[in-house]
What we know:
GO terms for molecular function: hydrolase activity. The longest helix has 16 residues, at 61-76. The protein has helices spanning 21-34, 39-43, 51-56, 61-76, 88-94, 108-118, 140-149, 163-171; strands at residues 2-5, 8-11, 18-19, 83-84, 100-103, 126-127, 156-160, 175-179, 193-195, 201-204, 207-210. 37% of the residues lie in helices and 18% in strands. The chain is globular and about 50 Å long. The chain has eight helices and eleven strands. The protein starts with a strand and ends with a strand. Helix 1 crosses helix 4.
Amino acid sequence: MVTLPCAAVLFxxxxxxxxxxxxxxxxxxxxxxxxxxxADEFLSGAHGRRTSDRVADFLPAExxxxxxxxxxxxxxxxxxxxxxxxxxxxxxxxxxxxPWALVTSMDKEQLRVRTGVAGVPLPPVAVTAEDxxxxxxxxxxxxxxxxxxxxxxxxxLVIEDAPAGIAAGRAAGATVLAVATSHDRAELTGAHAIxxxxxxxxxxxxxxxxxx
Length: 212
């Protein structure tokens, strides 16, 4: 067993705490047809990034706002298939006395809906897409969350499932734990440690304990 010391935990949401992959992929495929794009190419590398940032990779700047709104609307039409990932609720319940926050590429409404459907509680601090000028892999979201908690970023543990989020956590100066819930372990090597999912993580004095 290994214990990762920390004074606060900063969680990514989609792919780390909540699985909404079926919903996101269905919406993206409908959207891609509407905009004449290849859905597989759009989805490749999209995980962990803000919708607007990914849309901007494929469409000219003057079309990004409307196209992002359309994709958000398609995602909002259904909530079936959204679930909490293994170990999430037990870990969050165990974090008594340990401050924690959410840092997500979703907007506030998406976060409210998806965590609600999955039964994941919302903490007082949640940084969403609207709160930062640049999304992951930029560290702004993690730096903002640490600041709102009043904890130095270097004393925070970031938990992520995607390369963009891992890069953001590292750039913020935090220790990064990756969960291999959406990517192969080979894609997560930028993290300080990797576990299969959060069933392998438990609260411990002064940090989180990992079981392999």
